[in-house]
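Anyone up for a design puzzle?
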């Protein structure tokens, strides 16, 4: 029997991180230069029902039943068994590798779960539909992030640009003109749950002030959707700068992120902002294919530990 393979891309949030938790809209796109791969081999030499998990990136080689049931890899596999009502699976070896940086705002956790759900369900002969994969990944996110908005599992499952409002059916975005993003990593890990709790605490101190800031981010995000759908890239860049100023105001930027944002703008980016949880992790800059290498170089000189140039392509239909 050949190996089963499944993969899931990374993602970046273009607009609306954090406020999406509070039912404001957000825009996110997949990043296919980084991905999680999950492969499955039948466990011909394993005892019946035994599931072996190999995740060399985190030095993990363990049997499923020896793994803490709350571990995200265990939750991902067991969610599929539950969904497919599998009491005793055939023996198999699940191997997971990833090039998505961890705790860096690029959706690594959701991508791992999604790749696993696809690989395991295919191996069991019942590949799960996207909506179910997205829901199962959301359940794992809930355990680890407390109060996830659902944007990560959505954009990574569908692997297309999305306009997302919590508890509403996600809309696929119509990208009118291609645009180039340069992604720069501060190299500082920033757990999403911590950053989300920080915003919650500040919101509790000043609900009126924070609600007003959230509404301003929502306006910027709606305008950004229009800029993407009409191909108005100068406006898109300005809106990224506007979102960054508001993210700073809600306290999720950092000295390192600000340095990278300034370096990108100085090297000709049309706009730049943090992406994801903030307080570390990654930032994004809007560039053109011509300016992107210079922006990436400037980011590296300003301390980025890694840069990725990613093209967002126009929608097919
Ligand atoms: O850091 P990431 O990639 O997990 O992004 C988190 C995005 C937040 O809006 C901060 C949280 C959420 O659940 O949407």
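Challenge accepted. My sequence:
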């Amino acid at each position: 029997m050949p190996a089963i393979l499944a993969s899931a891309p990374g993602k970046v949030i273009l607009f609306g991180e954090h406020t999406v938790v509070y039912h404001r809209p957000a825009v996110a796109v997949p990043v296919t230069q980084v991905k999680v791969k999950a492969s499955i081999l039948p466990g011909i030499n394993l005892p019946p029902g035994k599931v072996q998990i190999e995740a060399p990136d985190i030095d993990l080689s363990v049997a499923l039943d020896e793994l803490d049931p709350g571990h995200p890899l265990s939750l991902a596999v067991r969610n599929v068994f539950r969904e497919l009502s599998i009491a005793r699976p055939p023996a198999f070896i699940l191997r997971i590798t990833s090039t998505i940086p961890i705790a860096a705002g690029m959706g690594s956790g959701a991508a791992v779960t999604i790749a696993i759900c696809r690989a395991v369900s295919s191996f069991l002969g019942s590949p799960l539909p996207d909506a179910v994969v997205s829901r199962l990944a959301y359940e794992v996110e809930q355990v680890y992030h407390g109060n996830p908005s659902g944007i990560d599992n959505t954009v990574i499952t569908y692997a297309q640009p999305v306009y997302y409002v919590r508890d509403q059916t996600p809309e696929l975005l119509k990208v009118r003109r291609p645009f180039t993003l340069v992604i720069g990593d501060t190299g500082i890990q920033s757990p999403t749950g911590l950053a989300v709790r920080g915003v919650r605490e500040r919101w509790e101190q000043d609900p009126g002030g924070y609600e007003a800031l959230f509404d301003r981010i929502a306006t910027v995000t709606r305008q950004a959707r229009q800029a993407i759908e009409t191909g108005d890239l100068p406006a898109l860049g300005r809106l990224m700068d506007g979102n960054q100023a508001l993210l700073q105001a809600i306290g999720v930027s950092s000295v390192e992120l600000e340095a990278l944002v300034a370096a990108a703008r100085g090297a000709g980016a049309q706009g730049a902002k943090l992406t994801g949880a903030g307080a570390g992790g990654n930032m994004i800059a809007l560039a053109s294919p011509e300016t992107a290498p210079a922006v990436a170089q400037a980011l590296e000189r300003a301390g980025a530990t890694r840069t990725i140039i990613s093209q967002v392509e126009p929608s097919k239909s």
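A detail worth pointing out: The longest strand covers residues 26-42.
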